[in-house]
Structure formats: C-alpha cells, structure tokens
Amino acid sequence: MILLSWIRSDNRIRVLVLVAVLCGLATGCTTYQQQNKVILYWRQGNLTNAMVEAAKMTDQNANNKDAVIWRLEQGAVLRANGQYEESNKAFDKAQDKIDQYSQEAKVKLGHEGGAFLSSQAELPYEGRAYDGIMLNTYETLNYLAMGDSDKARPEIIRAYQRQEEAVEENKKRIEEIQNEAESTTNRATVEKAQQDSSFQAAIQGDYTYLDSLKPYADYVNPYTVYLDGLFFMANAADASDLEHAHKSFERISTLLGDNAYIEQDLMAVDGLMNGKSLTPTTYFIFETGCAPVRDQIRIDIPTFWPELPYLGAAFPTLKFQNNYTPSLTVAAAATNTTTVLLSSMDSVVGRDFRNELPSIITKTLISSAIKAAATHFAWEATRQRQADGSLDNGGIAGALVLASASVYQVAVNISDTRTWTTLPKEFQFCRIATPPDRKIELRTPDGSQKIPVTIGEGTINLIYVKSISLGTPLLVSQIKLK
Amino acid sequence: MNIKIIFPLLAAVVFTIVGCATEGDDAHYVKTGGSDNIVNVGQINIQDYIQAANASVTNLLDSGVLDKVSNPPAILAISRIINNTSQQVDTDLLTKKIRIALRQSGKAVTTTTFGPGGSAEDPLAKGVQQEQEFLDDQKTTRLPDFSLSGKIIETIARAGSIRQSTYSFQLSLTDKQGLAVWEGEKEITKQGTRPAVGW
Hints:
Low-confidence stretches of chain B: 1-23
Mean pLDDT of chain B: 86
Structural class of chain A: alpha+beta
Distance between the termini of chain B: 36 Å
Order of helices and strands of chain B: HHEHEHEEEE
Largest sheet of chain B: 5 strands, mixed
Distance between the termini of chain A: 64 Å
Structural class of chain B: alpha/beta
Low-confidence stretches of chain A: none
Oligomer: heterodimer
Strand order of the largest sheet of chain A: 7-8-2-11-12
Radius of gyration of chain B: 26 Å
Mean pLDDT of chain A: 86
Order of helices and strands of chain A: HHHHHHHEHHHHHHHHEEEEEEHHEEEEE
Number of domains of chain A: 1
C-alpha cells in the first residue's frame, strides 16, 4: 500500500525509478528447470557430467536462496556414483541450511515482500518435508555403505522425526496462509479470483491428476519407514531396538496392505525377540526412474482494473517422468523373484504438492494483485501527467512505463519450479534367502540387462540397484547390514 | 555539493562499512557450562554433557559399588554408548568426563586396551601389553572389574510454536557376572519457541 501511494504521488522521477526497480527485480528470472542441466545428464546416465554440473551449480549458489536445492542434487548424484563420504558432506551442508531456516521465523517479511513483487522462486528454497526425510534416508544408506552403523543410527532417527515434524509444520503453514490472505491489502482481488468460476474451473481441471496418486498418510515415506525397520532389526543393540523394528514393520504393513515380504520380516523380528537368530537373508532395493519435476501453467485471474480485466499468472504443476524400468528380477538358484512397489515418490511428492497448493495459489493471487495494481497506478500517473502537460516528453515516458511494466510482468511471471529432480520415481523391494553359493543374477524385464552378482559376506545383506532411466546401465552396490 | 547527493553517498559509505564488519568483532570467552552458554532445544549442548556426567559420577560414587572390589582401584572398561538421538554426537563428551572424575576420585581407573569386540582405544598400548606378555610368557593383564555402557535418548514434543526436547542419559555399570550393579539416569529438558514473523 505504501508502494502504491508512493507511485500515485506527483513525482515523475518516482515513476521512472519504479520502472528501473521493476526491471531490476525482473532480471535473472529464469526457472529452476531452465537452469538445471544436472537432470539432463542424469537422465542420460552420464554421472560424470552430472557431477561436474552439480559441483558448478553448488559453487555458484553456495550462499544464496538456491543453496539447499543444489546441495540436494549434488548429494544424490555423488551417492549414485558411490562417493558416499562426499555425498554426505553435500547433504550435511543442505541439512545445516534447512535446519537454519527452520530455526528462523517462518514468515520473513523482507523476503515475502520481495517475492510478491517478483516471484515465489525468489524466496529461499528451505527444503520441502520429503526433501528432509530423503536427505536423512540417503545419509543413513551412505553411512551403512561405508560400514558405519553407529553414524547411520542418528540419521534414520532424524528421518523418522522429520516425518512427525512435517505434519505439524503443514498445520502451521495452512494457518499462516489463511492469515496472510485475510490481512493482505489486496484482499478484494484475492477474493474475487477465488470466487471467479472460470478461475476455479481452471484450477480444478489442471490439478485433477493429484486425485489419482496413491494415498499415503501425510508426509509418510514408506521407504524410510521400511529402512528404519530393517536397520533396527539388523543392528538391534537391545530389546527396545527390536520393538522399534517391529513397530516400523507393522506400520509399513498397514501402508502396503498384505505383503509376503513384510510378513517374513515381522516373523524374523518376532524370532529375534524370542531368542532365535536371523537366517541369512538378502534384501534388494530397486530405485527406479526419476521423480516428477515442476513445470508451470498459465491460468488467467480476474483483476479490478478495467484496462487489465484478466492477468495471466504462472502456477506450478507436476510433470511425471515415465521413462523408467518397471521392475527388477532376481534370479537365484533356479528361482526368480521380482521386486514390488515399496514407495512411490510420485505419490510422496504429489501429496506434498497437494498440501502446498492452497498456499501457492493464495501467494500467486496476492503477488499478481500487487503487480497488477503497481502497473495500473504507474500507467495512471503517467497518463495524468501526459494530460496536464507536466511530463516532458510525455509520449516517450508513458510508452516507457507501459513497455517496462509489460516486460516486467512477463519476466517475473514465473512460478517456483524448484524441486529435487534426482530423486527416483519409485522404490521397490524384495527379499530372498541368501543362496548357499551366494550367486544371483539381476535382470531387467526386457532382458536387455543381466548382471551377475556375488553376495558379499554377512548374515543380512542389502543389494542396492539403481536405474535412472529405461536403458541406462543398472548401478549396483552392496551393504552388509549384519 | 548538493545535500541531496552528499547524504545518499554518506549513507552508502556507512552501510558498506557496517556490511564489511567482521562477524568475530564481538567474540569473547565464556565459562564452559556457564549460564551464558548457548542453549539449543534440538541439540545436546556442552553444558548438558557436563550436567549429565556430574550427576552420574556423584550418583556412582555415592552408591559405594566401586569400593567393593577386592583389589582397588576398580578397573573400568568403556562399552558402547548407544546414540538414539537424531544428531551425530561424540559420546566421549560424556564418558571422558566420567572417566576423569572417577580417576581423580582414586576409586577407579579405565583400561584403554580393552573395548567392545576386541577393539582398543589405544592400539599401541595394547600391542605393548601383548609384547610384554609374550616376553614374560604369562598373562599379566588384569581383566576389568566393570564395564560402563549406556544410551542417550531424545524425546521431542511440540505444542503450537513451543518446541521441547528431553535428553535422557542412561548409564549402567556391569560386573564380571553380567549383573548391572549400578544404574543411573539423568534427564535434561529444554524448551524454546520459534518466532512467527521476522525479517
């Protein structure tokens, strides 16, 4: 409001200053997806170039609003390349920033004000709930791969905690955005848009795909819950750890429904509780495909200004990546076992997106209302000065204002498309009794890849298989859990 | 020069100087464990380890368990301290303080050549010990009278913007018969709020 009355006041320099400021704010407004070359190399299975690009982007963005997202991408790429220690360093840096943001005030007036004038992508990326959960899940796996179960323990506990925290954070987020919508000076525009039938129809139509995603409880990632059960079963230090493992397997059982593998896990924990030993078992985690990316769509929103009845605003949308290997078969001693779905990251990301959507819509409406009002008053002020002849070169100045405002509107009309793109589409799993010769073969459904593997020493082993895209080579690693 | 030009220039210079000031200008020493130490709700701070160690040592010495060994001072082996918190912590921040206090009390000494799974805190000392036994052709090492094990547990609770964390430091002293002859627990609870709005 201060800004608008400042513009309205009779000073042509202010109009021109505003033009310069708006052009300044518009500078550098490219979407994350346009900047992200890591994902291009990643999808090709070119880990070397993906790592180089991730390192470049983390260096360039080490201390700015995008520091977290690039560290997450870097951590995932390094992990896929087997550089577990370096991967954890990247994740630690992301985690430090995420934790720092979570200690600060949730609503930062300076940042939010700037973002309303520019774009939501200008706000610091503080990490979404599933980012934090996956960050700690990957750190757990990295420590386990390095044979350090003591350091893996706090990470899996933190991953569990983050799921609990996310539910609470989401409640707060809903309250905050409701307060924001009620207190904004552009409330009338926001309400007008919310009541506009064509706007509502567009919103409902464009996001119907969210209804078809697999329903998980809020912020629960079944993969993390399963890994938690597996960790505490294989690394049980006492009875309370076994109880912990049992609870996690029970929880995963309610999430997945009837599942023979989970039933076998529950029996194994029960056996341990009754003094039996674990029988040699090999677990397979198949991480396949790529998580959805964020794209943007244009939806028209109504305004109060006659010269601008509708304003096109950019809203984010999820774009699912379907070029993936659908399953993995483990051939061992004349028996074939195929992996089954453990966790759909499409659903995990989709659920988070759905929860965030009301906040995104409200913020975009507020932002669009402010931009429309700013343009209107700048245009109005110039027109008045042209009419009373107080503006030298009135025609040029007026044209400059309108042209700059248009350029600015187009340039900042981008949505926040930042999302952790190097996460997988799905986590699948299976378990087998470790064959006596410890020899297995991993096969893709189309038969294009057959990889013989000799299971390492240990009673409980985990074979980790990653397929980034259909046709890219399988990445295989092993972890001795016990 | 026009004041309209001088004033913004001066302001810019002042802001630049303030912006360039180093973060460490107000750095100063504080007493470790003192009331002016930083307190974090979601972290174990140094004063928490000090409190937990002091409470455990007092409780252990008061129990008289260490006085009952036939050949004092008692020999203590440090077993596993399970970290069931969500942070990477070095459990020596707890155990070392306990070891030092027990050593200073004269009632217990800690072996550095006997650890979980055959590991040794001081591998060189273990090598020397083994060499000595080889040269002497007899086993002279005294087995530990007790092993100290434990767990650090974190419990998080929230209500609105209030966040609370409790750290439970649980310790057990087990004798050669496998009996927990002493057990202690110290709980430390911290609360804090997160500001709703800021700059």
